[in-house]
Amino acid sequence: MRISFPITDYIRQSILTTKGDLVVRGDAIPEKLIAAVAGKILTAKGVGVLPEYDDFHLSNVGIKIANNSRNTSGSQVFSGVGFQPSMILLFVVDQLSTNINWSVGFTSEGQCACIAESGSAGTQKLRGASAAWIWRDVDNYMECIGADMGTDGFTLYWSLEGACPCKFVYCCIP
Fold it and tell me: What is the pLDDT of residues 96-150, one digit of tens each?
């Protein structure tokens, strides 16, 4: 083996033996990180620790999923998300188990939309100005009309006519 450039030639000819291999700094010398099987992601393990290939999990990319409820209009603040969300997905149902009203939607600063089903009225709606919409009748409905994103959470804004408590699952996306 003829070595003209000691570091790069040595690494190329002796360490990197398989397409996809990576070179990482070991304790004293460069080391090979063997290419992983398909579907794995490279995960940092902290300063001074070699990265590893891991299975993909939603928790690895910072998605936060939780549930809550709402029965009044106004703002609803959520903190402790762990990142600044760019979008919130909402899955909302009427709190009364006898009603078959549901809504699936999203909100991002300045944009929101949802699909809603009012089983009690037998109607479906696509609403471009609401992140969620639960409609019992003309006098009783709950609507999420947008959100503000913060550095560690978000605020949802609700509008209520009459009485229409709802339960929801939210999914925060970084």
Answer: 777 789 999 999 988 999 999 987 666 788 888 899 999 988 899 999 999 999 9
Strands 101-108 and 87-94: antiparallel
Domain ranges of the chain: 6-56, 61-173
Q: Between vectors from CA 173 to CA 135 and to CA 79, what angle results, nearest 5°?
A: 80
- Full DSSP string of 36-66: PPTTEEEE---TTS--EEEE--GGGGT-EEE
The pTM of the full predicted model, rounded to 2 decimals, is 0.69
- Enter the DSSP assignment of 162: S
Among candidates 59, 58, 78, which has minimal Cα distance to 68? 78
- Rounded to the nearest 5 degrees, what angle is found at the Cα of 28, between the Cα atoms of 49 and 48? 15
Closest to 116 (Cα-Cα) out of 97, 87, 91: 91
Tell me which H or E stretch contains 75: strand 74-79
Identify whether the C-beta of residue 151 lies closer than 8 Å to the C-beta of residue 88. no
Are 56 and 43 in contact, with CB atoms under 8 Å apart?
no
Q: Looking at the domain covering 61-173, what would its CATH class be?
A: mainly beta
Residue in the structure block whose two tokens are 């397409």? 19
DSSP, residue by residue, 103-126: EEEEEETTEEEEEEEETTTTEEEE
